[in-house]
Amino acid sequence: METIYRKQWRGFVEAHNEGLFEGAKDPCRNLLAGQLGTKLLGLCIYRWKGNVFVYCEGLCASPNLPAGLPEGPPDPHDLLEPLSPALSIWPGETEDAGPRRWIEMMDVFHFNEPTGREHWRRKAPVEERIGKVGVLKPEAVASYIYYHYGLQEERTFGGDKYEIIALHENLLFGYFERPEVVETPLYTPRLSTKSMPENWRDAKIPDHFIRWPDLPVSLRPIDLWLSVWE
Known about the structure:
By secondary structure, the protein is α+β, with helices and mostly antiparallel strands. Helix content is 16%, strand content 30%.
């Protein structure tokens, strides 16, 4: 049985490595294209300042392994190997862990999640694959996660099937598609409570963010650098 995973990763490119990073675009595109439809459904890479954000969808096997499918999601260092020489190094997660060039971001919100390949297949062409970033006030991170997990699992209201927001430190990265697809999720909600405010404005989500000096939004659009989809 195949399982669809969704992953977001963050990397960083220092200014002196920008040329090296740009030069790896075509090799990276070719490596990804060779896995489309088998191990990989699609992937987008976005740039903002020195940051590199990846949104990835792919296939892995669970629990009976079909031929050719990995047992779990890929290591981004292998999946995006041509980019590695240009990326800065992050410390390991534990004392005995080696250095990393990619950080896995934590999924903190989605309206829907895949229950199978046919359920997750786009039924109409995607016109835009949008990446956005936002910076939370450090003291507001727990509150942001609380409200968004409640919204997600109590299904306070619906939204875009493919939207997902991930967190690293207090930096949010969101992936969105246009046109939006809104449908009732097929998976069973994980909460049976009704703790979210009836009027979502009462959650005061914009107040959780450090404001941008040049834009009146919480999440700002960022540049799409590479997009490879089946």
